[in-house]
Amino acid sequence: MSIPVNKNDVVTVDIVGLTHEGEGVGREQGFTLFIRGALPGERVRAKVLKVKKQYGYAKLMEHEIASPDRVDAPCPIYKQCGGCQLQHMDYAAQLRWKRQHVVDNLVRIGKLAVDGEAAPKAGAKDGGATDAPSQGAASAGGGILVHPTVGMDEPWRYRNKASVPMGMGPVAAETIGAAGASQLIGGFYASGSHRIIDMDACLIQHERNDEVVAQVKRIGRELGVTVYNEETGRGLLRHVMTRVGFVTGEVMVVLVTNGYRIPQLDRWLAGIREALPKVTSIVQNINMRTTNVIFGDETKTLWGSDVIYDELDGIRFAISARSFYQVNPLQTIALYRKAVEYAGLTGTENVIDAYCGIGTISLFLARQAGHVYGVEIVPEAIEDAKRNAALNGIANADFEAGAAEVVIPRWRKEGIVPDVICVDPPRKGCDPALLETILAMKPRRVVYVSCNPSTLARDLRVLEDGGYRTTEVQPVDMFPWTVHVESVAVLVRE
Ligand code: SAH
């Protein structure tokens, strides 16, 4: 096909969809243009920025037709930051889009039949099995029931954790007493670069996290702390991580440093404790590698506890610095309750919780199961999980550190027979060896919690081909104003 547009052309295009990154998808004479900030249903004028063989990028200039779902982004740094991608879209429309995004992945990648959707086409070109069996007419029922996304009543200030890169530069305009000169700042990377822009408020963060970051920056400036420079590899402070327990109010501050020694450590600690009385744990993580990964391997407690505590649905959790803990605690309760409901427990079942983190889902399940076995790759998280079981007087849960795809096959050899397996893998989805083991263990049900609809769909296809049927999927909005979609699916053995 010849390419109908050139760089710098100004074109008028209809927007037909949103990519998984939140860009509007426009078509110009059959050629696809991605246009940041444009919404489905809009007609926009856009200037072509970049042309590739199959697609191009264009910049939104003006609207000829604006979507009724368009709203003004409330955050003043929305466009520069890139942390949120959908602040220009009405919240209810976002929830509808997230459900549809899950559906589209199930149909296109998983070749799965979804109630109310056209049946998936065998051999469709965009990934997945090419010889999928005919699924019949989905809209006739019998396909997967994908529920409306569970949204938040108050979808702001929902995050319990912030990881903020530190740098040198001009401080944010709003900072009181700010001078123009370059000094210690912290905020976000300007989109498409590693230049740090100072930030003093993030509308999706708990206010306390904003306050912690602001105070740590102030103390750092007063003490003349050096800041890590990616290019030279010199300077001390790399990131500040802060996590707040929504129920307990406890706060952990983690200073990620390029080196062991923190000059004037006593003044650091005194400064933090004085300005932030809710801080119960100050931790140092040492990361001396040239990497984008935030945390290094070594963590040491500088003051206070090794963990902070929080509570979800009446269960108390100890959370250490490097352990995974869901960032939106309100929605996490909705998600976990749904996972437990989908597990269909009566009090006698053996349940495996793979990718269990600090044992959150495991302990929710343990309240209704005979016995729960949790497995997780981060050893500190398993320490937390054991501590959490004890903390809540839960005796029917065991935890083991290791890769799920290694440990669970071993459990199988040892004779553990699960009635239900729950998985909650990272974005890349389940390891194929784990899926194989699940099929070999033949649990009555599989509950799949996923933060990535495309790997969810891929893995559901494998389980379906192995004799399971996906009956329901519940999307839950854990990350309002961003393109991220969490969902929980239930599969039953045919
Ligand atoms: N279910 C937990 C954690 C989910 S996040 C919760 O809801 O809090 C996914 C977890 O999988 C992380 O804790 C990560 O450390 C862990 N993980 C990543 N790869 C793994 C693997 N191969 N085997 C076991 N756990 C793994």
From TrEMBL:
Ligand binding (S-adenosyl-L-methionine): 326, 355, 376, 424
Domain TRAM: 4-62
Annotated segments matching region Disordered: 120-143
Keywords for the protein's UniProt record, in alphabetical order: 4Fe-4S, Iron, Iron-sulfur, Metal-binding, Methyltransferase, S-adenosyl-L-methionine, Transferase
One Pfam family per UniProt: TRAM
Active site, per annotation: 451 (nucleophile), 451
InterPro entries named in the record: MeTrfase_TrmA_AS, MeTrfase_TrmA_CS, NA-bd_OB-fold, SAM-dependent_MTases_sf, TRAM_dom, U5_MeTrfase_fam
A single MF term (Gene Ontology): 4 iron, 4 sulfur cluster binding
Biased composition (Low complexity): 120-138
Biological processes, Gene Ontology terms: rRNA base methylation
UniProt similarity note: Belongs to the class I-like SAM-binding methyltransferase superfamily. RNA M5U methyltransferase family.
Record's protein name: 23S rRNA (Uracil1939-C5)-methyltransferase
Biological source species: Paenibacillus methanolicus
